[in-house]
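User: what does the whole thing look like in 3D?
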Amino acid sequence: AQTVTQSQPEMSVQEAETVTLSCTYDTSESNYYLFWYKQPPSRQMILVIRQEAYKQQNATENRFSVNFQKAAKSFSLKISDSQLGDTAMYFCAFEGEYGNKLVFGAGTILRVKS
Amino acid sequence: GAGVSQSPRYKVAKRGQDVALRCDPISGHVSLFWYQQALGQGPEFLTYFQNEAQLDKSGLPSDRFFAERPEGSVSTLKIQRTQQEDSAVYLCASSLAPRAKLNQPQHFGDGTRLSIL
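Assistant: Here's the predicted 3D structure for the full assembly of 231 residues, as structure tokens:
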């Protein structure tokens, strides 16, 4: 079974600075998908960025980028120029190529301070 | 609607009561998922539908939990004889395509917060 581990329960960052959230996972599959979701207090799970394992190039979405290390099974999220609106719980998630469910980590609370 | 809609947003029930949670997926989305999110934790998979067919119910914690999607659109998650450990946020998600053919991201609703007294 796949597992996803987020080892940072809480992180803080000053507005406009850069922060990196860590995620590791375990799988025996060769192709799969990885995601970062953001969950503000409103509870809606919002997709931030996704990465396909067979793609070497790291995904980027505006201020959000990932560092995907397939051999190390690591998938970290970098947020540049942090904004107050980035304050939320962030979840790393895994989906197998032929899977039908997301496997989530326990989450990291990110607080952006002014 | 534009997104996944869940109702009610909050539900309080006494232990032993039955509850029903509703999910309206994005129009045209084939796949529908239910997740359970305990306080301070990540969501955990409960069940998956492709159209009206329930293809995976491996995450349902007990036979008190039942889900249906009779016409391949709206889905209902029913919990019978509720217990305090059922207290959680129940999230519904939908995606455009069947999982095995093409990866499509899941779009989530705002969830129903269920509190069992």
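In plain terms: Residues 9 and 112 of chain B are 5 Å apart (CA to CA). The first strand of chain B starts at residue 5 and ends at 7.
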